[in-house]
């Protein structure tokens, strides 16, 4: 059985589902601070059985000790954490407390319980302002420009120290590029509880009429069309990367770092054009100045993950956008039904 | 009144004393995990009045809230933390929990109480493997080679984020070089509770017969005599740097970084020769291989502290060693008296 912290959230729920459809057991720990209990029901519907679910916080050492004692957990996927860049700038202590403090407490509890296999949700943001693309795992980590990114880098450094201190640890640091999309069923996807920070959730809210226009930050980057280029990856591909990492870590010791990206960059305008084609909806745009801290381009070299995990992203940009749009339309329907009742 | 966390420890006790001899009030918070309650008595003896003392842990949020409510604290000197490099490699989680977690909790409590002036015990170790000497504060921080150093860098980054999030903060990051020496009275000094990591406490234990010989790690560094060169600073000079920083921060906002070093480097053999001259005791040596992670040279450029704090180290190496030796001999006498009773 694996424990997934933050398993009701966007990434965690997809990891839970993919692990369960393999016939494996999952225990989800989530404090629902940025997710919904309904995700557990939806995972159950799609998997044909219920995951274990514990409502609680990863910083609660006593709770972790109890879970690790009462359930036959042999690995942990640590997705729990705060992830809004703008919020992290305003409330950095909450980010360090939750993300770094949570990781420290989790590792302490795991070590005490004798569970040493851990997969961690890291981010390409740890590469900082690295400008040589594509980025591979040997690139030095930089100085992330916001507390969210800094907290992810700190978590990685905590885990590297932990692995150096005891040879029993097997830790996979998964550096996510830009996860988007949703489950093909339309039942699982990203459900931001506040103003979205990232292109896709914002674009979806414009497409569905919740917002008037999409802000595009910067038209003067040194890219083919002047807008920023990112490596978007389907959340199901990302989840499958976690499954492969969990399996690979059975045979590995110490810390392994793997990029989870497609290896292909798309500009903001590429994404908008593809979305308009897939959805048939026109997206009104507002071009604005660059945002401080944003870089021009960022895409992965996924070769190490291909070689070591036998994993490669398979979904196209169009599939990511079609799945995201299906999810968004489903959400709207639920909303309408809820309001009608 | 200022709050000094870790105020019963080596650095904190000297800061407390120097602040009190100016007629100011001090409240000490210490969990005595690497210090002795007797330090409070000795500060009282030297200052002519008792500092406030609370036995407790800086990670205890409820305790901090109470202190900050019940005492008229207008600034905090945060010295509490673990500092043994070797131990940090073996028990990294304890270091991250205590040092980083402690800083996060302290900043949270201070913000809530409306106390925004903070002086932090950082370390030149945050410069990592910087090789251009002398080091000034504009040098990039590096990748410290052990969890102790990493935890100090994380604390600095937490505090930088905090200062960016709220313009009311005034934070001084004091990057210590190599504090040695003791109070001239022989009543306050470093009292390691386990095997010392650093040259001076080890040398003192050899001089006083507690250990047979002093290990010198590396004779083949690119330095005048082949042994490592460091910037040793008298702990009283260091404490005075804190006093000046506390005062300067009244007029500053945001984060200020100041090196606390003399600007002069001495080799291991320089220190041993000077000690033998000062004490009249011969130190048997064992030359050993370099220790992994040690660098050849490290000394400060103290110009920024001179310019902005009006502070400069004044004690010579001979004075540092004479004071350290007096402290060590006093300790021994107390030990003999204690055993005789």
UniProtKB/TrEMBL annotation, chains A, B:
Q: Which residues cross the membrane?
A: none
Task: Domain (NAD-dependent epimerase/dehydratase): give its ranges.
Answer: 2-261
Pathway given in the UniProt record:
Carbohydrate metabolism; galactose metabolism
**What PANTHER family would the database entry show?**
UDP-GLUCOSE 4-EPIMERASE (PTHR43725)
EC no.? 5.1.3.2
Q: Which cofactor does it need?
A: NAD(+)
Q: Fill in the subunit field for this protein.
A: Homodimer.
The protein's name: UDP-glucose 4-epimerase
Task: Tell me a GO biological process for this protein.
Answer: galactose metabolic process
Sorted UniProt keywords = Carbohydrate metabolism, Galactose metabolism, Isomerase, NAD
Question: Which SUPFAM superfamilies does the entry mention?
Answer: NAD(P)-binding Rossmann-fold domains (SSF51735)
Task: Please give the Gene3D superfamilies that the UniProt record associates with this protein.
Answer: NAD(P)-binding Rossmann-like Domain, UDP-galactose 4-epimerase, domain 1
Q: Which InterPro entries match?
A: Epimerase_deHydtase, NAD(P)-bd_dom_sf, UDP_G4E
Instruction: Look up keyword NAD and say if it applies.
Output: yes
The family line of this record is: Belongs to the NAD(P)-dependent epimerase/dehydratase family.
Top-level taxon in the UniProt lineage: Bacteria
- What catalytic reaction does the record list? UDP-alpha-D-glucose = UDP-alpha-D-galactose
Molecular function (GO) terms listed?
UDP-glucose 4-epimerase activity
């Amino acid at each position: 059985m694996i424990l997934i912290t933050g398993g009701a959230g966007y990434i965690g729920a997809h990891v839970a589902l993919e692990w369960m459809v393999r016939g494996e057991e999952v225990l989800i720990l989530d404090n629902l601070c940025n997710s919904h209990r309904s995700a557990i029901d939806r995972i159950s519907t799609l998997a044909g059985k219920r995951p274990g679910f514990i409502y609680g916080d990863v910083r609660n050492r006593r709770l972790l000790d109890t879970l690790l004692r009462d359930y036959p957990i042999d690995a942990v996927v640590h997705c729990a954490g705060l992830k809004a860049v703008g919020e992290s700038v305003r409330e950095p202590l909450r980010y360090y407390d939750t993300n770094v403090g949570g990781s420290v407490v989790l590792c302490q509890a795991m070590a005490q319980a004798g569970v040493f296999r851990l997969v961690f949700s890291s981010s390409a943001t740890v590469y900082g302002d690295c400008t040589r693309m594509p980025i591979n795992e040997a690139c030095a980590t930089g100085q992330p420009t916001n507390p969210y990114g800094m907290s992810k880098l700190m978590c990685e450094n905590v885990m590297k120290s932990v692995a150096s201190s005891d040879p029993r640890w097997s830790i996979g640091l998964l550096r996510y590029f830009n996860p988007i999309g949703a489950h093909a069923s339309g039942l699982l996807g990203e459900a931001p509880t506040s103003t979205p920070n990232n292109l896709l959730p914002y674009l979806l809210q414009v497409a569905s009429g919740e917002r008037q226009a999409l802000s595009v930050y910067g038209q003067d980057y040194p890219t083919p069309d002047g807008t920023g280029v990112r490596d978007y990856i389907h959340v199901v591909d990302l989840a499958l990367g976690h499954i492969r990492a969990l399996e690979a870590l059975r045979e590995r010791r110490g810390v392994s770092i793997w990029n989870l990206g497609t290896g292909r960059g798309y500009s903001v305008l590429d994404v908008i054009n593809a979305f308009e084609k897939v959805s048939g909806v026109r997206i009104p745009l507002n071009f604005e100045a660059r945002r401080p801290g944003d870089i021009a381009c960022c895409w992965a070299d996924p070769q190490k993950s291909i070689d070591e995990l036998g994993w490669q992203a398979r979904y196209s940009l169009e599939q990511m956008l079609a799945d995201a749009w299906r999810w968004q339309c489903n959400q709207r329907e639920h909303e309408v039904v809820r309001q009608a009742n």
